[in-house]
Amino acid sequence: MKKILKSILLTFCFLLVFQNCSDDYDDVLHYRNTNEFVWTGLNQYYYWQKDSPDLNDGKFATDVAFQNFLSNYTPESLFQHLRYEPGNIDKYSVIFSDYEVLEAALQGTSKNSGADFGFKRKTAGSTEVFGFVRYILPNSDASTKNIQRGDLFYAINGVPLTVDSDGYLNPTGLSEDTFTLNMAAYDNGNITPNGNTITLTKTPYSENPVLIKNTHQVGSKKVGYLMYNGFYSNYENELNNAFAYFQGEGITHLVLDLRYNSGGSVNVATKLASMITGQFNGQIFAQQEWNEKRMSYYNSVNPDALLNKFTNTLSNGNGINSLSLTKVYVLTTKSTASASELIINSLKPYIDVTQIGDVTIGKNVGSITIYDSPTFRKENVNPNHKYAMQPIVLKILNKNGVGEYSNGLLPNVTLTENYGNLGILGNDTEPLLNLALSYINTNGKINSNFNTKVFEHVTESKNLDRIEKGMYIENPPNLNRD
After folding, report:
1. Cβ of 163: how many Cβ atoms within 10 Å?
2. Which residue of 136, 158, 294, 315 has the lowest C-beta tally within 10 Å?
3. 126: CB partners within 8 A, 6+ apart
C-alpha cells in the first residue's frame, strides 16, 4: 500500500506544478478526494485495521484499482464498509460531515432541552420502550417546565417509543427542536399512560458536567458527594473547584457518582484520578494499546507517549486540588461507560475502589478525531470539505495491563435504580447515595441483597448525538502519514 501512497503524492506534485498552484507541503498532502482521506486515515489508525479486509496494506495492487474501489462509495458508506463488524465488535466509530458539530459534541455542547433522558424496555425482549427523566439541567427550557427527575413517558409527539430488531431506538421526535412528551405513571412495575403532556424546546447548551457537589456527615466521617456527568476538558476548572470545596470541607471519604456519565476525555479522567489521590504524581495511570503499525511506530520514537500519568497540574498550568484519598466509592449504572470505567479500572491498582449500583457498559476502547490534513490534526485542514472521523484507535489498560472488561465492570454491591422511586440526586435519602453512605458508616457491613424491578437498558439521550459512550484522546501522540 505504501507504493499507492507514494503514487498519490507524486500525482499531487505533478498536478500542483502543472496548475501553478501553491507548492506548500500542506497542499501536496491533501488527498484527491474525501474517500481517499477516509481510507488512508483508517488504514493508519483504526484499531481493527488488520481485521478489516479492505483496509489491508496489500489489498490494492495499483492506484487504478484503489480509485475504482473508492468510487463505489460515499464517504459515509465507505466508512461503514471498512468498520470491523459494526454493532458487534466496533460499536462506536463514527464519521461526521461537519467537524464543528463533532467538536461541539465532544465538549458537551449541543442543542438541548435541558432534560436528560434514559430509555428502557417495558418488558424483557419487548420492542416497547419507556423513557425516564434522569436529571434537569439548570437555566434550560426544561428547568422552566413542570418536569423533574423520575418523570416517565411512553411516547413522543403521540408516537409510542419502540426499538428496532438491533435494539436501537426508532426515530423519535427527540431529533426535533420542539417536541412533546406523552407522560406515564409507574404502576407496580407497569408503565401506564396518564394523559399528561409536556412540550420542550431545544436551544444551544453547554453542559457543566459538575452537576452536584455537597457533603454528608455519617457518624464521625465527613463524606463528599460529586455527581459528574461528562469528562469535558472545557470544564477542568469547575472540576478542580469542586475538589477545592471538598478540601475546604475536610472530607474523609468521597462518593463519586458516575451513574449517567458515558465518558469523554482520557486526559480529564487522568486529572480526576489525580484529584482523588495526589500521592501518585508521575506514576502510570493508564496505558494505550494501538494497532500493530502504530504501536511499532510509537515504541520506536516515543514509547512514553502511550502512557497517561498522574499529574499535579491542569492543562492551563494551575495546580490540581487533590485529596490524597486511599478509598473511593463509585456509583454506576448501565449508562456508566468509557472514561468512567477507566477511572474505576485504573485506580484499582492504587487505592480501594468500591463500586455500588449496576454493571457498567463495558467500553474499554477509545478514539481520536482524524482530520484531512498533513498530520491528521486540525492544523492546515483541507478547505474543500469538513469531514472528520472519530474511529476507535486504541484499547486502554491500567498500569498492570488489565483492560478486558468488555462485559462491564461488576459492582461490589448491586442495586439497580427504582423507576417508581428514583429519589432526589444528592439527597442522603436517594437510594444509591443512601446505600453508599450506609456502606461507609458500617465499614461495608451491610446486607448486599436489594430487590428492585430490573428493566433492560436501551440507550440515553446523550447517545442520540452519535458520540456514543465516548472515550477519546485529545492530543494523540505524533499523528503522521507513513
Report:
1. 18
2. 158
3. none
Decide: 351 and 328 in contact? Cβ < 8 Å.
yes
198, 133 in Cβ contact below 8 A?
A: no
Nearest to 133, CA basis, from 190, 198, 224: 198
91: its cell numbers: 460499536
- Alpha carbons 478 and 482: distance in angstroms, whole number: 11
Radius of gyration of the chain (CA): 24
Which pLDDT tens digit goes with each residue over 130-140? 999 999 999 99
The segment(s) of the chain belonging to CATH 3.90.226.10 are 210-451+468-472
210-451+468-472 sits in which CATH class?
alpha beta
For cell 478526494, name the residue.
33
Q: Which CATH number fits domain 109-206: 3.40.630.10, 3.30.450.150, 2.30.42.10, 3.30.499.10?
A: 2.30.42.10
439-470 pLDDT, tens digit per residue, is: 999 999 886 666 678 899 999 988 765 455 57
**Confidence class for position 206, pLDDT limits 50, 70, 90:** very high
Cell numbers found for residue 31: 488527498
pLDDT tens digits, 127-164: 999 999 999 999 999 999 999 999 999 999 999 999 99
pLDDT averaged over the chain? 90
β-bridge pairing 413-414 and 352-357: parallel
What stretch(es) of the chain map to CATH 2.30.42.10?
Answer: 109-206
Q: How many residues are present in the chain?
A: 482
pLDDT tens-place string over residues 64-100: 999 999 999 999 999 999 999 998 899 899 999 999 9
Task: Give bridge partners of residue 96 from the DSSP assignment.
Answer: 388
Q: pLDDT tens digit string along 93-132? A: 999 999 999 998 888 888 899 999 999 999 988 999 999 9
Alpha carbon separation from 110 to 265, 304, 369 (Å, rounded): 17, 35, 18
